[in-house]
């Protein structure tokens, strides 16, 4: 199975070529946010205010890393379960967010929003945080520092491995996976 | 009456927290290696190989294998002929957790209030279960329990007439519903019997048993094997990407229950089934 190298933020026209099941190595910038940061961003938008980061064209990685040990840029940093962000995601996609990295099912509303906004949902391997950390080259807290591990961080990654779960055509890797069942 | 000092418990708990997060047990690593040999999906084998590599990196570099370093859950067997000097057992465990999570650069994942949700900043309080046993030893068993799999766990009060089929259906349905969210391949802890709260405790306690070690009652041991086979035919596979390794093991604990009741609890553990124990 071939592995595509992809730059982030996505270059024009790339997202449409990504299909559920494709394996990718991502290089470039991602922003981290999980439960608390999403809630705060959502509340900010509800109050008609501006987000502390511009999500347009960007990718959010759902992660709350462990603290960096001395001499390291970050601790262990694998994906958390994406479904908890479902409530907030369509709003961010409507603002131009182009991708999310996490693990687990998305709601139908998120899947439809991914199709509508020509975005993509990518899976990283949950529980392989020590390995994934090696692809993270720099980290900077850019918002909500008081949230600690849940703060928004800007990360530079090199060859970060993911698989396409929900593509912009509506294909879903989790449904394709069912070919391995012996039951109907 | 044997005396055990508060500080010895603090230091031992701290060490257990760190080691549980850095060193995945050989039982789980061996289960990964066996699974790679029989996994039918290419992506599935790839995921399992990455998990083996990840466990090796974490152990050799002394870093957490997963960023979710969990709720610190303890089952402590307290010999009734010991006395703890210098403080209470609960305080010693919580101080040990605080020390271990700080010194081990582990993530603080506990909020003090379930609705207000402010992080306590030191991963306490721990969840502590105490069982009194004969003797003069203190056995401390610790798990770092991740949130993703815990969120997909379920408990149900079945009717006795639902019988074994009802029990099996509930367990399988829980694994099916969890799909990729609980980070398969899973280790599945099951409690059958007891009452509402004790049944859930049994499911958690089952997870403390080594992967591959069967339950003692032969009919329960056979049920574990049967359920494991059935789970691995669901097609969920490693990380839910499809495949024949949905679970690494199923472990069941049973207890007596009321004539009206058939409680069943399913406590899912992700593949990061992190347990350490020590005897003082």
Protein described:
The complex is a heterodimer of chains A (184) and B (280). Chain A is built from five helices and seven strands; from the N terminus they run E-E-H-E-H-E-H-E-H-E-E-H. In chain A, helix 3 links the parallel strand 4 (99-102) and strand 5 (120-123). The mean pLDDT of chain A is 95. With 184 residues, chain A is of the alpha/beta class. The longest helix of chain B has 20 residues, at 42-61. In chain B, the strands form three sheets. Chain B has a four-stranded mixed beta sheet. In chain B, strands 6-9-7-8 form a four-stranded mixed beta sheet. The two termini of chain B are 14 Å apart. At the A-B interface, helix 4 and helix 5 of A face helix 3 and helix 5 of B.
Describe this structure in a few short sentences.
The complex is a heterodimer of chains A (184) and B (280). Chain A has helices at 35-46, 89-94, 108-116, 129-133, 173-176; strands at residues 3-8, 23-32, 59-61, 99-102, 120-123, 136-143, 152-166.
Helix percent of chain B reads: 40-55%
- Could you report the average pLDDT of chain B, rounded to the nearest whole number? 97
CATH top level of chain A is Alpha Beta
Following the backbone from N to C, one meets helices and strands of chain A in this order, namely: EEHEHEHEHEEH
Biggest chain-to-chain interface with counts: A-B, 47 and 50 residues
Q: What is the CATH T-level topology of chain A?
A: fumarase
Structural class of chain B: alpha/beta
Query: Strand-and-helix sequence of chain B, N→C?
Result: EHHHEEHEEHEHEHHEEE
In the CATH hierarchy, the architecture of chain A is Alpha-Beta Barrel
Residue ranges of chain B: pLDDT <50 for 5 or more in a row? none
Low-confidence stretches of chain A: none
Number of domains of chain B: 2
Helix content, binned percent of chain A: 10-25%
What's the topology here?
The complex is a heterodimer of chains A (184) and B (280).
Chain A (H helix, E strand, L loop, with lengths): L2 E6 L14 E10 L2 H12 L12 E3 L27 H6 L4 E4 L5 H9 L3 E4 L5 H5 L2 E8 L8 E15 L6 H4 L8
Chain B lengths: L1 E4 H17 L3 H13 L3 H20 L9 E9 L2 E4 L3 H15 L23 E7 L4 E8 L1 H5 L2 E5 L4 H16 L7 E9 L1 H12 L10 H14 L15 E11 L4 E8 L5 E5 L1
Parallel strand pairs in B: 1-3, 2-4, 7-8
Antiparallel strand pairs in B: 2-5, 5-10, 6-9, 7-9
Helix pairs in contact in B: 1-4, 2-3
């Amino acid at each position: 199975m071939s592995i595509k190298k992809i730059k982030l933020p996505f270059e024009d026209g790339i997202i449409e070529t990504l299909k559920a099941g494709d394996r990718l190595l991502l290089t470039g910038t991602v922003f981290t946010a999980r439960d608390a940061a999403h809630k705060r961003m959502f509340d900010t938008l509800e109050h008609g205010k501006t987000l502390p980061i511009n999500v347009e064209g960007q990718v959010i990685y759902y992660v709350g890393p462990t603290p960096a040990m001395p001499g390291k840029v970050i601790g262990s940093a694998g994906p958390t379960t994406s479904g908890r962000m479902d409530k907030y995601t369509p709003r961010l996609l409507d603002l131009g967010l182009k991708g999310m990295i996490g693990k687990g099912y998305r709601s139908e509303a998120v899947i439809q929003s991914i199709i509508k906004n020509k975005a993509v949902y990518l899976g990283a391997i949950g529980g392989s945080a020590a390995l994934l950390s090696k692809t993270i080259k720099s980290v900077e807290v850019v918002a909500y520092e008081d949230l600690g591990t849940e703060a928004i961080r800007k990360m530079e990654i090199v060859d970060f491995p993911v698989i396409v779960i929900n593509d912009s055509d509506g294909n879903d890797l989790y449904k394709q996976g069912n070919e391995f069942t012996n039951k109907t | 009456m044997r005396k055990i000092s508060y500080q010895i418990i603090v230091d031992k708990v701290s060490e257990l927290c760190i080691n549980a997060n850095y060193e995945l047990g050989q039982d789980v690593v061996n289960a990964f290696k066996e699974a790679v040999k029989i996994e039918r999906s290419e992506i599935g084998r790839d995921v399992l190989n990455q998990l083996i590599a990840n466990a090796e990196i974490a152990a050799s570099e002394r870093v957490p294998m997963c960023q979710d370093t969990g709720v610190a859950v303890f089952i402590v067997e307290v010999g009734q002929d010991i006395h703890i000097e210098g403080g209470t057992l609960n305080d010693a465990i919580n101080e040990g957790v605080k020390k271990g999570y700080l010194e081990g650069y582990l993530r603080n994942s506990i909020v003090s209030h379930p609705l207000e949700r402010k992080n306590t900043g030191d991963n306490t309080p721990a969840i502590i279960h105490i069982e009194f046993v004969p003797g003069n030893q203190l056995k401390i068993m610790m798990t770092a329990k991740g949130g993703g799999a815990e969120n997909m766990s379920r408990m149900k009060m079945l009717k006795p007439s639902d019988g074994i089929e009802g029990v099996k259906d509930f367990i399988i349905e829980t694994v099916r519903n969890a799909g990729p969210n609980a980070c398969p391949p899973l280790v599945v802890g099951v409690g059958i019997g007891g009452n509402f709260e004790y049944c859930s405790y049994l499911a958690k306690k089952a997870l403390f048993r080594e992967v591959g070690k069967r339950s003692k009652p032969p009919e329960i041991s056979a049920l574990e094997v049967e359920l494991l086979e059935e789970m691995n035919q669901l097609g969920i596979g490693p990380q839910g990407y499809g495949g024949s390794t949905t679970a690494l093991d199923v472990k069941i604990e049973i207890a007596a229950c009321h004539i009206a009741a058939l409680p069943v609890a399913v406590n899912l553990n992700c593949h990061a089934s992190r347990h350490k124990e020590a005897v003082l």
